[in-house]
């Protein structure tokens, strides 16, 4: 109160003394206050609270979440929920009811994910639940259709926490001891995408150190993106996992460690037949996580049911990096590709969607861009949800997926289906309202090394389309080494003979504009212009005058290094242009100078000289004659890779050293 009064008094005084200054001060105070308000608003962390209603050992949990900040133009924002009950069980319902088996204290955790919201997900403090009596009989209901499943609570966003649930079941008819592996952080990405912050176990699983393993990075590129499962988070049918039982455990572990930087190993004991267990891994996504929001990353789980045998199962779970939680998304495994090997690569795309309506969708249409470098005729649908047959050519009444094409699009149409809406009554699982199409496609016969962008318009029945993000493909620069040989033509030098050979370095098969660096070994023999000087000499002793002519010749034998740096532009597959700078230094220079002195009687040189004297000197220098110039060139042939012929003009900043260069080059 006193501070406010003092400011008010000061302001009145300033009004009297200087009105202009006072208005400026008032403006600055207002701006400062507004900035403080913005800072305060930006730094306030949104919090979700856990509310519960207790009835003995049966608890009803209710989330208390903050108001959502709707993304403009997106479908209605909503929360999805993931609960851990502190006893090894979990739920994805909004308001789950859980029955505890034993008395005791349990720590309940909640992760609320804000879909179509502009802010970060709210944080939630764990809540202690005390169970003092058993009033409701506990029934352990089997829920796993497979022996080994990987799930996650949300897609990875840089600098956020996510949870991976590893569920495993004893398929044997006897008690077993076994192992669980979780591999993460792929070697192909320079920065780590995840940091393992917590592992929550409930059946005395032991964390075993796996440090000091020597690995190799040799692994098939096709193993980068394997099918995955997400079960209740996006339905068991949403992703299919490779559940084939494997028998060579050392090979699987070695290959996994060659592909992933980090791993966690757990050992478990006394698992009863058909018993189901869950392990929860908290992963903090790093700020350096790959920023490409159309990229696919993965984690891998390996389950060894019985440690006495090498029989095991492998699951790879794909995840799309996002900047905000949007169920409608397009992603690709073509984030960064090697252009040399791309002929052997099949691109895989995945289009995810969610029905946010108040009723079920009967027809879903996905209008997907197909870049011109891809061959639409090679498109193959790998998987989809809702799961259905591929439509025949005739009209049918059963559920099916139809694929048609335009000049620049592939159109996937789910016909006669039922996909629940997230706002529909009696729909408890938001993930049951999601679907996807996964397809592969190959490159066309002739395509250029350039970035592509694709996105999808998603249309539910007759509603307005929802536009996804752009899914991009990029090529690694690659290196192209070229062999170059040719001759130089110096018009201002006498008896010039010059030839060279060397190497070039440039990006592999660039599309239009690219850089190029060269190193040329240049052999050059030449003579400078003959210098003739005539003068009259008065001989004082003899008393007569005579004409003296001095002729000077210089010849050079040089070994030069040329280092051009230039920008090149390919007009098409056959014609290229370039311009840049060139530095030349003489690695070795041998100079021979010949001086001939002739003396003639009288004032003319018609008669033979009465006196002749010739002197020859030799001089050798190293690393001298640094010369710099501009260069301009054109090539014809195979501009991007292979052989071509070229002509280059070099304008040296030194007199008499402008010249033409004619060469042949072959890029590899």
Automatic annotation (TrEMBL):
Residues 72-115 form the PKD domain. Pfam families: DUF7619, DUF7849, PKD_4. It comes from the Bacteria. Coiled coil: none annotated. InterPro entries: DUF7619, DUF7849, Ig-like_fold, PKD_dom, PKD_dom_sf. PROSITE patterns: PKD. This is PKD domain-containing protein. It comes from Mariniflexile litorale.
């Amino acid at each position: 109160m006193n501070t406010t009064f003092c400011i008010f008094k000061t302001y009145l005084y300033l009004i009297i003394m200087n009105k202009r200054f006072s208005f400026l001060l008032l403006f600055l105070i207002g701006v400062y206050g507004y900035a403080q308000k913005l800072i305060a608003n930006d730094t306030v962390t949104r919090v979700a609270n856990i509310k519960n209603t207790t009835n003995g050992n049966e608890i009803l949990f209710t989330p208390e979440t903050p108001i959502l900040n709707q993304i403009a133009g997106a479908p209605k924002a909503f929360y999805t929920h993931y609960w851990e009950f502190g006893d090894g069980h979990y739920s994805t319902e909004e308001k789950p009811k859980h029955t505890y088996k034993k008395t005791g204290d349990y720590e309940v955790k909640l992760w609320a994910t804000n879909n179509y919201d502009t802010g970060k997900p709210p944080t939630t403090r764990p809540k202690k639940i005390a169970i003092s009596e058993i009033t409701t009989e506990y029934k352990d209901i089997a829920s796993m259709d497979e022996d080994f499943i990987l799930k996650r609570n949300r897609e990875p966003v840089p600098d956020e926490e996510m949870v991976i649930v590893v569920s495993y079941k004893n398929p044997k008819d006897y008690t077993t001891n076994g192992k669980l592996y979780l591999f993460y952080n792929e070697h192909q990405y320079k920065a780590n995408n995840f940091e393992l912050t917590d592992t929550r176990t409930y059946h005395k699983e032991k964390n075993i150190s796996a440090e000091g393993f020597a690995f190799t990075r040799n692994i098939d590129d096709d193993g980068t993106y394997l099918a995955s499962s997400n079960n209740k988070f996006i339905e068991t049918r949403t992703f299919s996992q490779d559940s084939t039982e494997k028998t060579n455990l050392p090979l699987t572990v070695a290959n996994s460690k060659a592909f992933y930087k980090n791993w966690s190993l757990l050992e478990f004991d006394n698992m009863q037949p058909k018993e189901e267990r869950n392990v929860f891994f908290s992963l903090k996504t790093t700020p350096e996580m790959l920023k490409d929001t159309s990229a696919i990353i993965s984690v891998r789980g390996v389950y060894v049911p019985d440690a006495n045998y090498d029989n095991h199962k492998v699951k790879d779970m794909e995840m799309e990096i996002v900047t905000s939680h949007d169920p409608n998304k397009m992603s690709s495994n073509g984030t960064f590709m090697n252009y040399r090997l791309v002929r052997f690569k099949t691109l895989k795309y995945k289009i995810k969607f969610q029905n946010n309506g108040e009723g079920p969708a009967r027809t879903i249409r996905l209008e997907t861009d197909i870049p011109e470098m891809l061959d639409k005729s090679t498109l193959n649908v790998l998987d989809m949800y809702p799961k259905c047959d591929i439509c025949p050519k005739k009209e049918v009444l059963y559920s099916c997926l139809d694929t048609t094409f335009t000049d620049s699009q592939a159109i996937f149409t789910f016909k006669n289906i039922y996909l629940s809406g997230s706002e529909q009554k009696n729909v408890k699982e938001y993930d049951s309202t999601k679907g996807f199409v996964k397809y592969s496609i190959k490159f066309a016969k002739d395509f250029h090394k350039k970035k592509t962008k694709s996105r999808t318009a998603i249309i539910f029945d007759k509603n307005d389309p929802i536009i996804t993000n752009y899914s991009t493909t990029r090529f690694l620069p690659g290196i192209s080494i070229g062999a170059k040989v040719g001759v130089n033509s110096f018009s201002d030098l006498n008896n010039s003979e010059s030839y060279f050979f060397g190497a070039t370095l440039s990006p592999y098969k660039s599309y239009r504009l690219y850089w190029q660096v060269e190193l040329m070994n240049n052999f050059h023999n030449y003579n400078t212009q003959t210098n003739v000087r005539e003068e009259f000499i008065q001989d004082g002793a003899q008393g007569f005058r005579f004409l003296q002519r001095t002729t000077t010749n210089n010849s050079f034998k040089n070994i030069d290094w040329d280092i051009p740096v230039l920008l090149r532009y390919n007009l098409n597959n056959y014609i290229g242009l370039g311009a840049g700078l060139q530095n030349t230094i003489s690695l070795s220079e041998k100079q021979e100078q010949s001086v001939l002195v002739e003396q003639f009687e009288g004032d003319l040189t018609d008669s033979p000289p009465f006196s002749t004297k010739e002197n020859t000197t030799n001089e050798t220098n190293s690393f001298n004659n640094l010369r710099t110039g501009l260069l301009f060139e054109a090539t014809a042939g195979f501009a991007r890779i292979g052989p071509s012929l070229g002509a280059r003009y070099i304008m040296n900043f030194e007199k008499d050293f402008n010249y033409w260069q004619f060469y042949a080059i072959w890029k590899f």
